[in-house]
Amino acid sequence: MGQNDLMGTAEDFADQFLRVTKQYLPHVARLCLISTFLEDGIHMWFQWSEQRDYIDTTWNCGYLLASSFVFLNLLGQLTGCVLVLSRNFVQYACFGLFGIIALQTIAYSILWDLKFLMRNLALGGGLLLLLAESRSEGKSMFAGVPTMRESSPKQYMQLGGRVLLVLMFMTLLHLDASFFSQPSQQ
Fold it and tell me: Transmembrane stretches, by residue range (predicted)?
């Protein structure tokens, strides 16, 4: 068996795999993009009292307002996830999830925490990708292939979403600033 035979076999396997999984991949991609919201909503359900007490203690807003905040957060996240996964009202669900990101950034005072800010921007990037996917596009000569002459809002949303998603991985980096600084003189 030569190298060309192995390459042909690998390509045949890849083609067969894509044909079989093609209908499932968009659903898996959407699940991956909203998984943080889904996990956070479930987390809020199981740690209701801790979340409520944290908001009450941080903002000194009282039991009722803190409970309302946690309920709104939980309902907004889980409803948005269900709508995105079912492909119903995806644009409204994405805007609602954008609102949840903004609400959490303010309520949990994470605007000045760089790691959480980058995480939230990455979540926004995932939502931009979902919005771009939900937008209908006009007919082109080749389906799915972008044209060089035209630039649509969908293409800008995809670019922005991809760039912002990189920020999620940037939070995983642990750079040592001492590498760039000069050693101290003793």
Answer: 63-85, 92-110, 159-180
Residue range 23-58, pLDDT digits in tens: 888 888 888 888 889 999 999 999 999 999 999 998
User: CA–CA distance from 81 to each of 78, 84, 116 (Å)?
Assistant: 5, 5, 21
Q: Which two tokens stand for residue 33?
A: 């993009």
Q: Domain-by-domain residue ranges, the chain? A: 12-138
Q: How far, in Å, CA of 157 to CA of 126, rounded?
A: 10
pTM: 0.72
- Cα(10)–Cα(25) distance, rounded to whole angstroms? 20
Rounded Cα gap, residues 18 and 20, in angstroms = 5
